[in-house]
Amino acid sequence: MSHMSKGQKADPLIAEIQHELRPGHFVRREDVSRLTCNLDRLEKRLQGLAKAGEAERAVRLYEVLLSGTYAKNEECDDECYFMRHSAAGSRPGRRPAGRRRRRLARF
Question: Is pLDDT larger for residue 10 or for residue 83?
Answer without folding.
Answer: 10
